[in-house]
């Protein structure tokens, strides 16, 4: 069993992860001529996000791009989010405000808010980020829009978390790197299955083709990954953009309970994935989990043959260190290589507990 789990993980490393990790993002700046062909509507849904918008809007407003607009969707805020957005519309002609007074019963609030923002978008290319995110540079829009230049319908970006002290932050950032490595490398191999709403773009035609969020409008999660699922099922093509200037950074969850709720919400969307994607992702996650479980079984419930056990651990650990370190360089999301084995074991233990909690207790979580 231990040998089988190592073989499966090495197969994923060799076919998906290492080709992605070893590749370098292009250093060349996007050609401005492409900008005329891809005018972009940047859409941000915000609820009680005044302080976040004060950090986000200055960098959005200074994006170097030929033609774009910013649509702020004030989703039922009871602070000064709407007032701040209204003031921006008076000074910046490319800023527009959509106000959501209430959400129809049974509909997911964020998806409803995004739908209203998309409905009024002037341009055929849509770029999304969250109110609590900040693009790393004023070239973010330019690099993300460059993904449309290849004829793609969807552009998948990467959204890391800010570095901070503490084990939780290291674990969250490791989990984000591993998730990014999965969905970006799978997409580069022709198997896109998800994106992250804090750095995702697609055409308005793609949104209309999937009938928006209709297939999952009552599900609280999935405004990003389930939209990608529906689009790919219709034959839409996805491009990957990993340049450091094309990233949008967020603050990591500040407490274990906050991270737990966030992960439960995100993982709940996985049950609606296509069967092939479930099998592809599930096989990798199961192989990692069983690797640790079979190791524990060998240590505590049977005589230990240390030589093959040590060889299996050395080969597997060396492979993940090399691959994950390479991915962190490509994505400019530097991780502590020495801590990777510890974080990997901790994450898959947490993943097992999260999966069990979703099976046993399905209380929904609402977005803030």
From TrEMBL:
This is Glycosyltransferase. SUPFAM superfamilies: Nucleotide-diphospho-sugar transferases. It comes from Hymenobacter koreensis. PANTHER family: POLY-BETA-1,6-N-ACETYL-D-GLUCOSAMINE SYNTHASE. Belongs to the glycosyltransferase 2 family. It comes from the Bacteria. InterPro entries: Glyco_trans_2-like, Nucleotide-diphossugar_trans. Keywords: Glycosyltransferase, Membrane, Transferase, Transmembrane, Transmembrane helix. Coiled coil: none annotated. Pfam families: Glycos_transf_2. Residues 41-169 form the Glycosyltransferase 2-like domain. The chain crosses the membrane at residues 281-300, 306-325, 337-361. Gene3D superfamilies: Spore Coat Polysaccharide Biosynthesis Protein SpsA, Chain A (3.90.550.10).
